Amino acid sequence: IDNGLCEDMARVWRLLREIIEGLSHIHSQGIIHRDLKPVNIFIDYDDHVKIGDFGLATNILQKHAAGPLSRELTGYVLPPPVKSDTLYYSNETSHTGQVGTALYSAPELDSHGVKAMYNQKVDIYSLGIIFFEMCYHPLNTNMERMKILSDLRLKEIKLPPDFCTAETYRQVYIVRWCLNHDPSKRPSYEQLLADDHIPPPQVGETVLQDMVRQTLSNPQSKGYKYLVAACFNQKVSPADDITYDISLSRAANFSLLESTGDKLRRIFQLHGGVYFQTPLLTPLNRLTTGFETTAPMMTRGGSVVSLPHDLRIPFARYLAQNGSIVSMKRYCIDRVYRERRVLGFHPRELVECAFDIVTPTPGNLMAEAELIAMLWEIVSEFPGLLDKNCMVRINHYHLVTGILLHCGVEEQKHDLACKILRKTKSDELSCNPNSKLSSRLSELDLADHNINSLLSLMSLELSYSKVVAQLKPLTKKNTLAATFVKKGLKQLELVIANTESLGVKCPLMITPGLLTDINIYSGTIFQLVWDQKNKHHRLDREVVAVGGRYDNLISFFKTMLDVSLDSSSPQCGAGLSLSLDKLVSAGSSVPCSSTPNSTCDVLLYSIGKGMLHTRLNIVRDLWQAGVRCTVLEQQEDFESIQSYCLSSRIPCIVFLKESEPGLARLRTLGKDSNRFQEKRVQLNELVECVIRMIRCDNTGVNTGRSDQTRHRTTSEARQNSVGELSAADVNVTLLTENQERISAAARRRYEHQILNTLSSSLQKLSPRVKVEVVALQVEADFVRSLASLMDIKDNAGLVKKFPRHKKIVTRVLEHLESLSDSTVLVFYSIMDSVYKFVL
């Protein structure tokens, strides 16, 4: 300005446009500068504008993003006037700069000690003063500048006579428009950029944008392919490579994460869940773009897709595409992603557990009750969590609709009302008419008494009976709102009654203000919350799980994917989503007497170069016996090995020395679980000895082993040999035709093979059932024939039917005479791994 900027008007208009675009960006980020003046606007090496000095900037827009928005200006969303309790301006105030902020601040900020009410239009006013200085000749003295700028600040906007000429009519119009003392009559940045008084940009910025827009509109063109390829061919600097995913590094307790996931899988499988994973990427659509933290991506073909924001939306889309699926229970434990506010970094990774129940009709709402009961089972699986004041909040879409109608909210504004209330913390839900939330709700055009009534009802969090009593005046009326409320309460009553029948002891609170993911769930909505200390070490209510019915979500995808609703089968879905990260974090912070499972039962270590094959033979036999074993390759001193086993909770060390052939030193944790006890065993007895040690549950040794490898040889062991196959009493008998002797190692391998094959069938049997498995060294056809003829009472006649296998049939009949009539009999072909039940 001091160097005669006014003499180059082309540059003036270009710099003005860049200043406006800079203000557009900071306003879109929810920031008001409040101290805009020439010394805070910088020119870089390429003669482009950079706005700086945000010392007095405020994030008013962010704080009031959920409040009533003023749409008085075309295409721009404004916050309401906000009272500032801390800023008082006067003409004597001096700030950074040669003249001071007072000459550039908007009139609404010059309140002389009175609380100022302002919005981002204060920056437009400052821009008007700055633009005048850009267009007017340099002022030689501070006194002259003070006089002229003070005249500009008058309500009548007194301009210097030599500025108001025919050549400067554009500049005069813009200055007067920006300096209007009524903020509502000042332009927005979009109006300024679109106004004819500001010449179009002389550079190719707009042209470039139009070219890009036209190129993207034709995916088959060469320009489109070139543009997409150029995006993917960008070089990544080493700094970007290092910092991209640096925030993902975390010292997680992987053992606790795995054991917690195993517990959840057992609960999901107990309820009949089948693991099912949907595709990772889904095309970006109106629903996923509604989440601020959706992580979008682009493929090499230019398709815009998104990483899963949760596991429910991709599954609902899959159901819409596969209308034949009308009955299903599925679970999935997978990662979901949240885009960060600061771009250029890897999206946040969270581990989510989802369980969904698909039925042809909602029925008697058993699905919702089962999901809540499942949450209670999960909490009960971690006893320490019961002390965290767990609670299930529950709500219904019809209840919300009825309350909004009762409070005078028009139906077309229900989504807006839910959006405002959803972004509001529960402690802000008060009936104070002067509260911030009340001012936000003013956009709904509600009377004060309706706002008070809405806030009062939405702040309820009571038991079912108390909520019914609170809503009794509403339900007595013969209105549409009362119909919705009564329908919602009736369905909530049924869900609560069903959960009580399923033994849920967790408190269930009706919470009309529960609006989380209201655009996804269309019936019952519920949350699992508990007390958790926040970063300020204060107790806060932590949301760990959400769920509900999402029939409308499936219908939305069917409509979007153009799936005929008439031809497809009816599909109803209900599901829950649980944060595994929060569950693990809460579990690790709760004192618990149980010890995390070890990932290994035996560590094998040897001294000597000639022990390789011996080690491999031993580890092979241990693996075949179902014992989790690992081999330590590097040479370590024995104290370090023991410390490693203690920290990793490995209960057993097998130590081999080349100087002791045929022997092994077996070290096991003693009763205090802190010291190892050693004994020498023969190599041919090592596997049996290790198995006996693992089975020793009554010694009080805390080995931290999993249920999968506790028992391996007895009938109780065999039924648990493959991940708790069945609680039935299973016994395996091996019969050969010539009564040849079977080694212990071979017997163990056969038993393990048999139980693996029978696992799915054994799971269906009752715990009280006795199962006798007769394993025969014969072909599958013989097993099938023998099983089909077992109802023949004449044993001699039965033997005659198998002349080639008389000996083994006779041995089978002799063995069966010792069994009780209630025993379930299974014939098994060792040669073909085929079995046949005889009930």
TrEMBL record:
**One Gene Ontology biological process:** mitochondrial translation
Identify the GO cellular component terms for this protein.
cytosol; mitochondrion
Superkingdom of source: Eukaryota
Entry's Pfam families? Answer: Pkinase (PF00069), tRNA-synt_His (PF13393)
UniProt KW keywords: Kinase, Transferase
Instruction: List, for all copies, the residue spans of the domain called Protein kinase.
Output: 1-198
PROSITE patterns attached to this UniProt entry: PROTEIN_KINASE_DOM, PROTEIN_KINASE_ST
- What are the recorded GO MF terms, alphabetically? ATP binding; histidine-tRNA ligase activity; protein kinase activity; RNA binding
Give the protein name, as stated in the record.
eIF-2-alpha kinase GCN2
Q: Which organism is it from?
A: Cacopsylla melanoneura
The major lineage groups are:
Eukaryota, Metazoa, Ecdysozoa, Arthropoda, Hexapoda
